[in-house]
Amino acid sequence: xxxxxxxxxxxxxxxxxxxxxxxxxxxxxxxxxxxxxxxxxxxxxxxxxxxxxxxxxxxxxxxxxxxxxxxxxxxxxxxxxxxxxxxxxxxxx
Length: 93
Hints:
93 residues, mainly alpha, 0% strand, flat
């Protein structure tokens, strides 16, 4: 959707639409849990975390981690949520 594999992205408007739908779903989920003033920042941080983790997985960078990507993604997501809770942005899950 966002990678360089498709050079002619304007020729594939469905990619932009799918990306916007995914981002909108994330923004709605974050807005339900985070005070208004910080929701945009938290959504961007979460989007960045997911994108980075996905790109690392696509690039095969987790071979030495000794765990499946689903397990690793769960651990990383928990660390992110715990950090938000520790900072008082969200209640502990």
